[in-house]
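hiii so um. not sure if this is the right channel but i have a protein structure encoded as tokens and i wanna go backwards to a sequence. like what aa goes where. can anyone help
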């Protein structure tokens, strides 16, 4: 696929569809603290998102960490916004107060969605955390959002 983004954790290559499906289904079988939302279209994974709740550490049990990947063929259609809206709703229902995530420095689409549209705040960066397909290393940008109105 010529539209594959270097910023994605998974590549959505049609030759890897069975591996991607297995990864997705295995994610569904993990602990209750992991919530997985995904969608298929014509046998392809088009979006996968997770919410991890840390029930084991009492001091951080109010914080959830999410991740999302949208197939490049389905980006810029509101799917990421919709799924992250569901993640925030579920997080509130689970009693979480804050959500955190990270994205690859330079991924302007992610920054536009998370920071500008969904009002996440950039909280920091991890230098050289991610190795891209071309072999170069880039920073990850840490973001967070208070989702409990009583904490603002």
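sure thing!! here u go:
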């Amino acid at each position: 696929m010529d539209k594959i983004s270097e910023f994605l954790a998974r590549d959505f290559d049609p030759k890897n569809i069975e591996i991607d499906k297995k990864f997705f289904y295995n994610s569904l079988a993990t602990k209750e603290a992991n919530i997985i939302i995904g969608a298929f279209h014509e046998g392809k994974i088009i979006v996968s998102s997770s919410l991890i709740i840390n029930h084991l550490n009492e001091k951080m049990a109010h914080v959830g960490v999410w991740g999302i990947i949208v197939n490049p063929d389905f980006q810029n259609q509101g799917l990421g916004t919709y799924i992250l809206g569901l993640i925030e709703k579920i997080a509130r229902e689970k009693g979480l107060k804050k959500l955190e995530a990270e994205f690859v420095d330079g991924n302007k689409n992610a920054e536009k969605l998370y920071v500008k549209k969904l009002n996440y705040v950039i909280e920091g960066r991890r230098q050289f955390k991610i190795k891209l397909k071309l072999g170069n290393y880039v920073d990850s940008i840490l973001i967070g959002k208070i989702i409990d109105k009583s904490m603002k």
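oh and The first helix runs from residue 17 to 28.
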